[in-house]
Design a protein that fits this description.
Number of helices: 7
Structural class: mainly alpha
Number of strands: 0
Helix content: over 70%
Order of helices and strands: HHHHHHH
Distance between the termini: 15 Å
Mean pLDDT: 86
Largest sheet: none
Number of domains: 1
Strand content: under 5%
Low-confidence stretches: none
Shape: elongated
Radius of gyration: 17 Å
């Protein structure tokens, strides 16, 4: 199957941008894009690295929106001043980074990333576990495809 002139022109940059956007609240399938790219001439490890980097940075941007939004309208809209929200914030700081492992999951992954930011889960551990989860997901996808 041919990739077509558009994908051949965009190549790895297109993969990076597509996986980045798929990790935001936009309804895109990074797995489908990676499957198409896996039919091309690129080495498996290159595809794995580019897809993981793009999707991880997109997920971290969603985390950042949640984190910065907590100080403004978003925080007021979800009621971050309530005692219940404060309890969730404490849980997120203690256990939240482990949830970042699930940020790869379709539909809920973006919400998890935003919630971790909103409740100010530690950025270093969140970034590490989010990266690990996304890397593992793409490694499995590529192992199945190749």
């Amino acid at each position: 199957m041919e990739l077509g002139p558009v994908w051949e022109q965009w190549g790895l940059v297109g993969l990076f941008l597509g996986t980045f956007l798929a990790a935001t609240l936009l309804p895109l399938s990074s797995e489908a894009l990676l499957a198409v790219m896996a039919m091309g001439p690129w080495p498996t490890l290159t595809l794995l690295g580019v897809a993981t980097a793009g999707n991880w940075l997109g997920g971290m941007s969603t985390y950042a929106i949640g984190r910065w939004g907590a100080q403004g309208r978003l925080g007021r809209w979800v009621g971050l001043d309530s005692p219940r929200a404060q309890a969730w914030a404490k849980r997120a700081q203690r256990h939240g980074p482990w949830l970042a492992w699930l940020c790869w999951a379709p539909l809920v992954g973006d919400l998890i990333a935003a919630a971790l930011g909103l409740f100010k889960a530690p950025v270093g551990w969140t970034a590490l576990w989010m990266f690990a989860g996304k890397l593992a997901r793409y490694a499995v996808v590529l192992a199945v495809l190749r």
